[in-house]
Give the backbone structure.
Amino acid sequence: STKLKPYQLLFSRRSWYCIGRSSLHRAVRTFNVARIQQLETLDESFEVPRGFSVSRYLGNAWHLIPEPGPDHHVLVRFQPLVARNVAEVAWHRTQQTERAADGTLEFRATVSGLGEISWWILGYGDQAEAIEPPELRQLVAERCAKALARYRDVDTAC
C-alpha cells in the first residue's frame, strides 16, 4: 500500500488517472483510478509543490508514463491500409507525418521512453514497422517474437 498525495485527477483515453506523490515509490507517479482497490481518507493535509506542473512531469511521455533517460526520436512506417487513419489523429504533441508515393506513412515523434509507444506500434500488427531508434525496433521485434511463440501450434493452412 502507499500513501498518495494527489496532485491532479485527469481523464484520458477512456480512463481516469491520478498523478501524485507516492510514499511507496518516493516519487510522483501516475495511477489508474480503476486499479485502486481500497481507499482510506487520512486526516492530514498537504500542498501541491509550487513548481509542480503536469505537462512538465509528463514531458514527452507517449501517454501518461514518463520514463527516465533521454528522449528518443522515433520513426514508424505505416502501410497504406492504415496510413490515412494514423495521419488523421493527433497522437502526440511532437508528431510529424509524411506520406510517401507508395502510400505508406512515415510517423515521427520525440518521446520520453519507448515502453508505451512500443505497445501502440504493436497494436497495428503487420501494418506498422518501428524503424528508429534501433532500441525501439529491437523492443518491438522481441515482443513480436514472444507473441509468435504463443501461436506456434496454430495451423495456418486454409
User: Anything to note?
Assistant: Strands lie at 4-12, 15-22, 27-32, 72-78, 96-99, 105-111, 128-132. Residues 130 and 137 are 5 Å apart (CA to CA).
